Amino acid sequence: MPNQGVYQLILYVVKTQPTAMIKITSEFKIALQKNNYSSFYDDSRQLWSILFESDESVASFATQITLCKCNLMQNNIENANLCQDLKVNNDSDANFIESGDSIEIETLVTVFKENKLTDVIENTQQKSFKLKLGKNKLAKRIEDSILNMKQGERKLFVLTGSMMAPFYSNLISSNTIIFYDINILKVVIIFYHFGIFFKFNVSFLIRLKRMKKKKEPFRMLLIIVH
């Protein structure tokens, strides 16, 4: 595939027999689904759904599609709002992240240069970290963007250095293009009631919702220490 040229996604029945050829444009979209499926439309508007071997295979495929789109749009990244799901949570009971929540995340931040990913400027995929939203621990553009994400989801954002200021300002220039990969490992929701803070893991709240729907009894012991 030539740089900043024509990009195609080709599906094969066998190595010498292509069954579909899809031109990748800045408007091309893929949708991630349950059980490592990814779906998209070809040039004739036929819907394809492809099964991948693992979460990482899906994420790698989605990243490569984003790379192609970035090559086509790199002169207008600041206005493109380019992002791509790498893993989705299809649980209808799952809560969306809200401002003030505490989260545990992994990040991978990579420089896009000369039509490919080059230098890694941050990698916490082997050492996740926790933070509270609203405390300026993430760039505002990232914090605003993850408010519609759920626990267990992973997303890729294509940004410029100026969008990330003042983060990484000693490592990249304002017009440097970066790929910001964020994985939401855990969300803790905090309630404030009658002067007392209550902290719950999202997984617990999801189980509670399901029990309520099924009208199952549950017990909770709350110990308050003054």
CATH class: Alpha Beta
Radius of gyration: 21 Å
How far apart are the first and last residues' alpha carbons, in Å?
65 Å
- Output the number of helix runs: 4
SSE run = EEEEEHHEEEEHEEEH
How does this model look, in words?
With 226 residues, this protein is of the alpha+beta class. It has a single domain, classed as Chitinase A, domain 3 (Roll). It contains 4 helices and 12 strands. The model is unreliable at 193-197, 204-208 and 218-226 (pLDDT under 50).
Summarize the structure.
By secondary structure, this protein is an alpha+beta fold. It is built from 4 helices and 12 strands, in the order βββββααββββαβββα.
Main features:
226 residues, alpha+beta, Chitinase A, domain 3, 7-stranded antiparallel sheet, 4 helices, disordered C terminus
Architecture blueprint of SSEs:
Elements: E1 7-14, E2 17-24, E3 31-32, E4 37-41, E5 47-51, H1 55-73, H2 77-80, E6 83-87, E7 102-113, E8 116-123, E9 129-132, H3 140-145, E10 154-160, E11 177-193, E12 196-201, H4 202-213
Antiparallel strand pairs: 1-2, 3-4, 4-5, 6-10, 7-8, 7-9, 7-11, 10-11, 11-12
